[in-house]
Amino acid sequence: MKIRIINTVVTATVSCVSLLLVMMSLGAQAQSVSTQSIKGRVPTASGNILIQGPGGLVIEDNVAVSLSATPAQFSVSPDTTDLILSDSDGDLGLTAEVDSAAGTLIWTSHQTPLTAEQVARAFGAEFAGRTLTVRASAPVTVSSRDGDPRSGTQTLHSATYTLHVPELPLPVTALLVGGAEFPVTSGFPTQGFVGGTFQVRLGDTVANNALYTWSTQSDWVSVDSQGRVSFMATPSSTHKTVVIKAIDKVGGGESIYTFTVNEWFIHQGSVAGTASQADSACAAQSGGNYAVPSWTRLSAGPGSARAGDGPLWNAWGSLSAYGAGWHDYSYWARETQGGNRYDVYLASGNVGNNPPASLWFITCSQSL
C-alpha cells in the first residue's frame, strides 16, 4: 500500500516539472521576439551637389573666371540647398552633410581632362580666351532623427558647369600727348606741370579703354574712365613715381603703366618780365629750389621733333594747349650769349637770343 502512494507522488512531481519547463520555454521565446529591432531602409538624397570658387561663393553656369585664379582654388561646396532628402520608412528629422574634403573635381578643355600641373596654374597662363567645364562628386551622408538605420552615405555629383576664361588684358601700346604718339618705351613723362594731361592707350585703339576700370594711388594725379591722366598738384621727391592701373571689367586682368617725373615746371601766368626779374621770381618761389631752366630743358632746338624722352616742348608740344596759364610765346632761359639771354618759344620749340631787358614770360623748374 505504501508503495503505490510513493509512485503516485513521483508521477505527479514529474508532470509538474515538465509543465514548468514548457512554460519557461514559451516565456523565453516571447521575450526574444519582443526585444528584436525591426530593420528599415537608409535615408537617401537626390539632386546635385554644388561647387564653390575662390572665397567660398557657389559658382554659376556660363560665367567668367578671373585670369589670376586657378582651378585648384575651386572645391566642393558644403551647401546642401539643391539636395532632396527622403526616407522610404517615413522617418523624420532628415539632415545631410557633404564631405567636401573627400570631394573631387574634374576639369576639362575640349573634353580633355586637365593635368595636375594645369589645375595648379592660373587660368590666364594657358586658357585665356577659352572655355572650360568642371563637374564634381563627393560623399553625402543623410541622417534621420529616429528609425533604424539612422544614416546612410552615397556619392552624388554636381551639374556640369561651363566657365569662360577671358582674353588676356590688352597691353599699354602708346601714350597720346598733345597730338603726338609715343611708345611706352619712351619713359614719358619725365617732366611735368600742373594741368599736364595725356592718354594711355590699350591695344590698337583708345576705344578699348572703356572696357577697363582705371585707377592710381598717387594723390597728385588723376585718371579718368578713358585712361586720360592729369597732373593736379606738385609731387614730392618721395612720391614722384606713378602707377596707372587698368583692370578688365570682364576678366579682371590688369594692365599697368608706370612713370617717374624727375623735373617740375611752374610759371608766372600772364606776368612778363626782364631776364633779371625772371631770376628773382624763380628764386622767390617757396616749396623747392626753383630756378630759370636751361634752354636745353625747354627745347631740343629749332626744327627738332617731338620725343617722349625729350625736353619740355618736345615731350608735351605747345604748352598753351593745356591751358593752366601757359602761353604760345617766348619764355626766358638761363644761358647768356654775347650779352643777350636765351629764350624759348613754347608754341614751336624755337630758341631765341634777345637782350635781357626784353619782356618775356617766366617759367621756373626744379629737380624732384
From TrEMBL:
Pfam families: Invasin_D4. Transmembrane segments: none annotated. InterPro entries: C-type_lectin-like/link_sf, CTDL_fold, Intimin-Invasin_domain, Invasin/intimin_cell_adhesion, Invasin_D4. It comes from the Bacteria. The keyword Signal applies. One of its GO terms (cellular component) is cell outer membrane. PANTHER family: ATTACHING AND EFFACING PROTEIN HOMOLOG-RELATED (PTHR39576:SF2), ATTACHING AND EFFACING PROTEIN HOMOLOG-RELATED-RELATED (PTHR39576). This is Invasin domain-containing protein.
